[in-house]
Amino acid sequence: VARLAAAFAAHRDEAARLEPQARELIALDFTEPQTREFHALKADFDKVYAQIDVLGQVLNDRDETIKRLEARVYDLNAQVAHLRAALEPFAGIAKFVELVGNPALAAEQLRMVISHKLIRKLCPKCKEAFRPNPKLLAQVGLPEDTETLYRKARPPEPDEKTGELPEPCRACDGVGFRARAAVFEMIDVTEGIKAVIAAGGDSAAIRKQAKEEKQLSCQKDALRLVIDGSTGLDELQRVFAPPGGPRRKKKPARRRPPQ
Description:
mainly alpha
């Protein structure tokens, strides 16, 4: 582009230099040698202007191309933002394939897809330990020898004599949670997953293949935090419940009795 612009400027300067000479010759009564000189000068002049027209068209085409590329980059940035906002990586993969327009080509470009979620950590000062039911352990996929899990502290009961509620936990102000932790989902795009993508499989098919390959999901990674007591199963249910799905109803908060 810089070379084209420099050439354009050089030809424009040459045309400006030749034009006064051509006008001066046109105003004269030519002798035969002057006529030959005039035609030679006019041919050079026409040639320069023809080159200027070509370069001008090239530069105009360049400007149009830049505008199209800028619009495309803007659109791709918007699509990337949309991908980041996807509910889970499999939906992001399906959207990426749609953007590329060629499932086989998209499959070759992908190496790994990573997503994350934030979950609340139980307050270390007031969290409650409990012994889990073996059926619950089997249902959520925790080891059978897990003896202790933790949950948010239950609302305190009022004093039987005074009816007053005890002071809330100072560490979390009675909320039951303090800070957050990230859990990750890492989908290694293996040959099996590439085959599903190249065949035009949707997000459900890709998810099924990843599950068969026992790849790390956010739910599996979150169980690590459940086992070490950082969070509880209720928090996982809140975070990973499907949109619009049933959720546990919250109990009405207890109010302090009037003094």
